[in-house]
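Quick one:
INPUT:
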């Protein structure tokens, strides 16, 4: 997108072979011309551009109003393409790729000279991922170049898991939104820095620590000082709805009602997302009963937050999650969404 340019954003479906082919051809034409397009992945919808074209990558930042110090992930569709984007491909990268690719794991490696500074925030490393979704795989192969693709939403806001989320957030700012159906993972990829020893988990995701440890043997947790230029999703406030979001525990409905009254927000502007201690909902505008399965909760989370915003919520109360390692990624997203 050129600064100030507006588009009549087109939505193209992919749920029939002829529609898939038409969307693939149109998306490739736009990407080859240096434009950005919104495309589905299995994690969330991405805002894609040619990762080797610095000017095209800069348009991603313009559309999202994204700070330049927040790096992008490069998406590939083969091991050979992944290796072409990095300066080194160590044995651990090969082991992790065999275990988890295609899938929601991003590997941080030393960047190749072909990767522009705009992708990496000027840093020496680049995040690489081979996504599982059939459309973005086909698109990368059709184009013949990797795609830089952060989430297709304004910076720091809720990531989109459906094409209509993208349309509401970025309609008029992108020429094409490809509708590939609901995202099947629902939260952003796990990011693992394998330039560090031991490998460092920069951003938790649905591929959690125990699965990574089975391959790596050792793991450091949490971002280092250099991590801001190595991984997206590390800003203090991120993934945030327009409404204020809080994470609470409560023993019973009476305690929840009292705390909500103390918030000062009118009951018809309060939405509750609960998974274990389910209130009746009669004192709130909306009650969403969330799944108690981690993967199902992840698939549902961002869509529920979008629904709350669309309904005009002023306060979203999310029941605190279990203290278990498999919930770490969702807890991370909620903590950043709740940050002031």
């Amino acid at each position: 997108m050129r600064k100030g340019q507006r588009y009549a954003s087109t939505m193209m479906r992919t749920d029939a072979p002829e529609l898939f082919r038409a969307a693939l051809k149109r998306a490739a034409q736009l990407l080859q011309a240096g434009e950005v397009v919104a495309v589905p992945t299995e994690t969330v919808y991405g805002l894609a551009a040619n990762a080797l074209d610095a000017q095209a990558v800069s348009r991603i930042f313009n559309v999202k109003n994204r700070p330049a110090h927040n790096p992008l992930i490069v998406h590939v569709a083969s091991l050979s393409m992944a290796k072409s984007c990095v300066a080194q491909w160590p044995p651990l990268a090969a082991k992790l790729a065999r275990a988890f690719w295609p899938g929601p794991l991003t590997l941080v490696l030393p960047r190749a000279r072909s990767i522009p500074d705009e992708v990496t925030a000027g840093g020496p490393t680049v995040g690489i991922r081979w996504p599982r979704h059939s459309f973005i795989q086909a698109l990368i192969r059709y184009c013949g170049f990797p795609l830089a693709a952060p989430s297709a939403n304004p910076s720091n806001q809720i990531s989109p898991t459906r094409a209509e989320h993208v349309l509401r957030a970025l309609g008029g700012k992108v020429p094409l939104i490809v509708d590939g159906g609901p995202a099947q993972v629902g939260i952003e990829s796990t990011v693992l820095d394998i330039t560090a020893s031991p490998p460092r988990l920069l951003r938790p995701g649905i591929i959690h620590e125990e699965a990574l440890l089975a391959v790596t043997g050792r793991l450091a947790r949490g971002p280092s000082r250099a991590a801001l230029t190595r991984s997206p999703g590390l800003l203090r406030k991120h993934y945030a709805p327009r409404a204020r979001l809080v994470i609470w525990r409560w023993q019973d409905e009476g305690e929840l009602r009292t705390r909500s009254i103390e918030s000062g927000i009118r009951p018809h502007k309060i939405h509750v997302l609960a998974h274990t201690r389910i209130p009746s909902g009669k004192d709130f505008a909306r009650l969403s009963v969330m799944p108690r399965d981690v993967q199902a909760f992840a698939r549902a989370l961002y869509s529920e937050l979008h629904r709350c915003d669309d309904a005009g919520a002023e306060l979203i109360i999310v029941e605190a999650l279990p203290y278990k390692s498999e919930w770490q990624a969702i807890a991370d997203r909620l903590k950043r969404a709740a940050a002031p």
